[in-house]
Design a protein that fits this description.
492 residues, mainly alpha, Growth Hormone, Chain: A, 2 domains, two-stranded antiparallel sheet, 17 helices, MFS_dom
Length: 492
């Protein structure tokens, strides 16, 4: 009898622990990143201002999602899923190793390597999970992905406690090194237990793979030279300028692509309606993640500077609060999954646009909570951690409503010949939202807040109102977009 993992193929355990440790490394480093960049050099940080630190944070988190697109291409056209995951994990380990040194240049090269490695590992390990099951095993596959999803959140929950303590209390670079040690543990167990994964099914001939590998090598070398020129200041470019330029590039690309689909691609009326629905979901996703990804940027700064972190005689690291969203997912994701099924059996399951609007409204409510916390700070007091804990729980409710629902809707609504491209466009919305979240961090600068004590209130209230209005618009439009459910039913 073949060994199993909770009744699933044994290979699921290989992928579960690889992803768990990869998420440990990602969220462990992410919990420290913004805090390290804005901490003064005298205290071991980079001493950047909030504008620059926020722009770098936004570019990094943007790249993690954008690089998933070439990461998938590399697996399909060059080295396959299994090797892509292995090379991605090796690249992440190397990135963390460079970040463990007290050197500004190696820090930024390490950050880039982590983004590249994550882009190579993340989409392909998910594809490997799907490869463990036969095509007709839909229910078993869904169950396997649920177990896999738990691994993600276990890693995200544990990481901030370990890397946060050593990073903030001992040495920032120890925290980055420990995040890398987690990825190394995942890499070692992946290689030892790789034999349990299914045989690789290559979609390209050896000749095609060699040709694609040469092309990839040339492009990588050119990009690498440009990055080294930027890092070592042979070419000097303002990170804020780069971040803003990427905003225009992504928005322009999305406008051109959706315009092509709607007016040039020769789609029929039903397919165009599906594309219009996906376009509305794209916009809502950007707005959602612009608020949600404040967790690692402005809300992380709020935890560091304006939150009472004292627990008796111990002052907890600000980064520990970054574990709250993962706890929320572990506790509440099963409840929401049960709720949607319960409502569906009674024919009162909310339409897809309604669920997406719920996601936005939860984010809006969370920033109304943070507006209250900012008012406490304006009175000259520090806010209790409960303000951020409640905020992060609302974020979790919002993501459970929006992310899996939006992902599923895009997959099912996309015209067949553009399905993979539109899934890539969905991830592009996450990239843009992350980038905008980083740029908004400039509003948390000490200078601005000292000059205008109400600046924090304005920031949080502005996000609350803006995202709330978007949620209300989606709710109003949901009647016009209800055809999405019927289109999905027709395709089933």
């Amino acid at each position: 009898m073949q060994p199993t993992f909770f009744g699933h193929p044994r290979g699921l355990a290989t992928l579960f622990f690889t992803e768990m440790w990869e998420r440990f490394s990602y969220y462990g480093m992410r919990a420290l990143l913004m805090l390290f960049m804005i901490t003064s050099a005298e205290k071991g940080g980079l001493g950047l201002n909030e504008d620059t630190g926020g722009a770098i944070y936004g570019i990094y988190t943007m790249m993690v999602y954008m690089l998933a697109l070439p990461g998938g291409w590399i697996a399909d056209n060059v080295c396959g899923l299994r090797k892509s995951v292995f090379y991605g994990a090796c690249t992440i380990c190397l990135g963390h190793l460079l970040m463990a040194f007290s050197n500004t240049e190696t820090f930024f090269v390490g950050l880039l390597l982590i983004a590249v490695g994550t882009g190579l590992l993340k989409p392909n390990i998910s594809s490997l999970v799907g490869e463990l099951y036969a095509r007709e095993e839909n229910a078993r596959r869904d169950s396997g992905f649920s177990i896999f999803f738990m691994g993600i959140n276990i890693g995200a929950f544990v990481a901030p406690f370990i890397t946060g303590y050593f990073g903030e209390k001992v040495n920032w670079h120890y925290g980055f090194a420990l995040a890398g040690a987690g990825m190394l543990a995942g890499l070692v167990q992946y290689k030892i237990t790789e034999k349990y994964l299914p045989e690789e099914r290559m979609t390209r001939t050896p000749e095609e793979r060699k040709k694609n590998a040469r092309t990839l090598g040339i492009v990588s070398a050119l990009v690498g030279l440009l990055v080294l020129a930027l890092v070592f200041k042979i070419v000097v470019v303002d990170p804020v300028w780069i971040a803003k330029a990427f905003v225009y590039i992504i928005v322009g690309s999305a406008v051109l692509y959706f315009g092509y689909l709607l007016f040039v691609a020769g789609l029929d009326a039903a397919e165009r309606r599906g594309v219009l629905a996906i376009l509305s979901f794209f916009v809502m996703s950007v707005i959602f993640y612009m608020g949600y990804e404040q967790q690692g940027s402005s809300l992380n700064l709020f935890a560091l500077r304006y939150t009472d972190l004292a627990l008796g005689g111990f002052v907890m690291p600000a980064s520990w609060l970054q574990a709250v969203p993962a706890v929320g997912v572990l506790i509440f994701a099963p409840f929401f999954a049960w709720l949607w099924l319960w409502l569906s059996k009674r024919n009162i399951d909310p339409a897809i646009p309604v669920k997406l609007s719920f996601g936005l409204l939860f984010i809006s409510a969370s920033f109304f909570v943070m507006t209250g916390a900012a008012y406490v700070v304006m009175q000259g007091q520090k806010a209790l951690p409960l303000w951020l804990i409640f905020t992060y729980m609302l974020h979790t409710f919002g993501e459970i409503c929006l992310y899996p629902v939006g992902l599923s809707a895009v997959k099912k609504l996309a015209p067949q010949k553009f399905a993979a491209q539109l899934m890539g466009v969905w991830f592009l919305s996450l990239s843009l939202g992350n980038l905008l979240a980083g740029l908004l961090t400039s509003n948390m600068s000490n200078e601005r807040i000292l000059r205008n004590p109400g600046a924090m209130v304005e920031l949080f209230l502005g996000i609350a109102i803006g995202v709330g209005l978007a949620g209300i618009v989606m709710l109003v439009l949901s009647k016009r977009l209800r055809f999405t459910n019927s289109v999905i039913a027709a395709k089933a």
